[in-house]
Task: inverse folding
């Protein structure tokens, strides 16, 4: 199979770069075999499409090797696409936006570099998965809990940098990382914040630096490759209570959102509640999808001493009590009762990773199933959450897709997460789903909503909606991109930011 | 008096720019009179020095006027220096790093644009002072509390963008702003995060955006002028308890720090505790400085229902009880008891601004007093806080200056705030103080510590210490500066970042 040469490069460029990669990293760390690369395609695009296929893959094992890879890419003008684990399949998995990019696979950089028990943080390399971090924390005594997303196989660094969410007090992962080491597009090495001084004391504890803060530039970004990241954790509490509230209908949903917001703002509920519709469990404990259900399942957690949890729960009950028909409950666990939680909801709010969400019973087309997540960000107000739910549901109905999903709450914002399932071997269905998604992006944009991340197919579409000031944000992103990456070798097109040489895509 | 022409500009450039400012803003909004400009000098530098004097001042009243000012500055190559209120005197007040800059005084842009009661945020212009925000919130019913710094006269925007601190749950102000409108160095207008879409819903509630986050670039920054900012607030709690702990000696200080850290990490104490030494109050309530005191005064607060505060305080007492000789106390207030708090410690943790810290009884040289704050950032570990305290105190002793100060705690970091007082009409003394400061910066840098902000005189000195990766952070700051501000018209030299044309200062 001939190599897929990236737009803007020649076959000779690519061959020369690959030879140089082999020279630096060795044979086994450079993959060019077409069959071996199949595993690193966009898993949820139409199976026969090669639109997001890479030309090769390199697997550095150290920061120095990442620097060498970036220097070679510049020398030969060959673009890279980095992934940490590449497991977020709805957002393209490991696949590049631009066909023919060389993948930089960071799975082999998988060391937990530091666990600071007293200050409750860890420092990790990008290949560290949630499973790995959890295990390392358990091995260190279990005194610290991570916030985790629904699936444990992903990268802590990848998820956090992509604004991924979890459900514990640090569930806004991108806001609770602190201190990065970054390989810049010219191959040089940066340490952010207080890490900018040799022998820095406060690198992973103080979120600012001296002068403009640049950490944000490396989130959802094509401006650097993060090789080391500080991640804040919570100390194991004496007790943990998994709580739930169940209501039916939109009016009650609005009330639940408003009560949970007040509990979050008052710092009674300190984690990120999730409210779902359409994901049910039968009497035997088997999960199934029911897009027609009108039941809203809310879940949230309390942490602290047994006394405090009781006090918190009295407030919770008092505020939820006035909602018509609300069922409220909780289940208590000791903080050190590692085996206690028996289901995903209970585990994910306690930092214990699992893979339940890939349960085959939830995949309508078996292993061929793809799903496309559409997740605009709204405000955490009952009436607005309901408005956005109705809007998105109507768009799904218009497109003929069943609608299931959830609402992940923060004290002020609400992420409206919805999913469409389809058969990735069915070209017509797959294309219809992606076209409907683009239309949904445009329609919610008319109402002032933007998805918090998106698939490869729609990065340009979402970026196009950000029109304020004649697309001022795009011009700023591009100006910085051109200044730092004049040859455009890092992740061209990521989040709709294209380098100068590839801007007329 | 002839105008002070800024380095890199000509007198003709400056005259032409001033004429254009008058054309856009009108006569009364452009100040060139030398006497009128005296008020906007660095108040704590040697009185006779003109090193940080401006050439003129413009006073825009709208974002459009700020844009016009920036465009004129570009057209004529005349550098600007922006201040919101310019009240942080220890950091130069309103004065520019580069002599002869035109001051952009934003005090007239002083509207509270929005108060969102349900979502607990406000949107303010840069001229809004803490007093103004507090008043506006009171007028709106008092249901929301701001986090405030020690002096109420400063700008909310200015303090927050400069990484200023307060003492309430949102006391890390820079981490609790959300959504900016920014005039870029080319005069164009940017809205950050979700504000990048017209009619944005989630601008001031969701802290990230689509693609790389750029908000950090506008903190301690010369990359833009922020004309509008979202600021997160806390809902008024049912009750508030002002708490304190008093110990003597370093060993006990270390224990207090460790206990307070555990209480913060466990989210019992949710504000930012402050521990001071050398600031005393006599029996009649008069404050005085006592640099020889070995007593550490810790203060912190609890918020919630009366029940919850009692439960929290039981944990607080249990953990502080084992510290030898510790005196512990608290005073309770109803959340809506606006007149309750009778002293600064109680008010500042409840969001009520005052001016107590400018009490003339604390100024050893009367109105001629200057003070220089030196505030390196460390980790919130008892033993390291003591180490840093001892190091800084030894540097003060070496320089022959009395040492007073405080430690502002966050769950993981500790800001070591110290102050030197001197007579700004005494040239020798003033110069000695600044020279000692520079030496302190270099000495703590050898131990891995960096001040979180600094005076005009030492911006280059601090930036010089950030040496990791052959000064990688400086090169990144400069690359972005040159890309966004090729003519170097915005705040040249701020935090040691100089534009290309003025880099060989």
Result:
């Amino acid at each position: 199979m001939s190599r897929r040469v990236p737009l803007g490069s020649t076959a000779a460029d690519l061959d020369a770069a690959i030879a140089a990669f082999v020279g630096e990293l060795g044979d086994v760390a450079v993959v060019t075999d077409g069959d071996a690369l199949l595993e690193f395609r966009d898993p949820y695009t139409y199976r026969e499409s090669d639109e997001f296929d890479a030309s090769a893959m390199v697997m550095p094992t150290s920061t120095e090797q990442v620097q060498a890879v970036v220097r070679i890419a510049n020398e030969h003008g060959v673009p890279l696409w980095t992934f940490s684990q590449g497991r977020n399949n709805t957002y393209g998995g490991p696949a590049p936006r631009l066909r023919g990019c060389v993948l930089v696979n960071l799975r082999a950089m998988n060391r937990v570099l530091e666990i600071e028990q007293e200050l409750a943080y860890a420092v990790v390399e990008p290949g560290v998965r949630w499973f790995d971090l959890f295990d390392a924390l358990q091995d260190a005594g279990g005194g610290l809990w991570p916030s985790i997303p629904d699936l444990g196989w992903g990268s802590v660094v990848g998820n956090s940098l992509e604004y991924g969410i979890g459900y514990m007090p640090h569930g806004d992962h991108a806001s609770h990382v602190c201190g990065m080491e970054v390989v810049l597009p010219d191959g040089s090495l940066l340490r952010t914040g207080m890490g900018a001084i040799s022998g820095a004391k406060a690198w992973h504890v103080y979120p600012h630096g001296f002068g403009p803060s640049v950490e944000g530039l490396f989130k959802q970004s094509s401006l650097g490759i993060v090789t080391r990241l500080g991640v804040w954790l919570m100390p194991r509490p004496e007790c943990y209570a998994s709580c739930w509230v169940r209501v039916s209908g939109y009016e009650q949903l609005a009330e639940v959102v408003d009560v949970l917001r007040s509990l979050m703002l008052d710092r009674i509920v300190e984690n990120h509640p999730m409210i779902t519709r359409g994901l049910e469990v039968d009497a035997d404990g088997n999960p199934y999808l029911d897009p027609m259900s009108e039941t809203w399942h809310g879940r949230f957690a309390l942490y602290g001493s047994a006394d405090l949890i009781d006090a918190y729960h009295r407030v919770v009950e008092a505020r939820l009590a006035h909602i018509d028909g609300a069922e409220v409950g909780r289940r208590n666990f000791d903080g050190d009762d590692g085996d206690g939680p028996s289901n995903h909801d209970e585990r994910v709010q306690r930092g214990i990773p699992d893979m339940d969400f890939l349960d085959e019973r939830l995949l309508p087309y078996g292993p061929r199933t793809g799903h496309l997540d559409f997740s605009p960000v709204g405000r955490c107000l009952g009436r607005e959450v309901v408005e956005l739910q109705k809007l998105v549901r109507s768009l799904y109905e218009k497109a003929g897709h069943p609608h299931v999903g959830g609402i992940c709450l923060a004290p002020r914002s609400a992420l409206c997460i919805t999913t469409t399932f389809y058969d990735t071997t069915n070209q017509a269905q797959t294309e219809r789903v992606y076209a409907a998604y683009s239309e949904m992006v445009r329609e919610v944009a008319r109402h002032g909503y933007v998805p918090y991340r998106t698939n490869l197919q729609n990065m340009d579409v979402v970026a196009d909606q950000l029109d304020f000031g004649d697309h001022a944000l795009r011009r700023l992103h591009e100006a910085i991109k051109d200044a730092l990456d004049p040859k455009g070798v890092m992740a061209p097109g990521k989040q709709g930011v294209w380098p100068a040489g590839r801007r007329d895509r």
Remarks:
- Chain B is about 30% helix and 20% strand.
- The mean pLDDT of chain B is 95.
- Chain B touches chain A through 106 residues (CB under 8 Å).
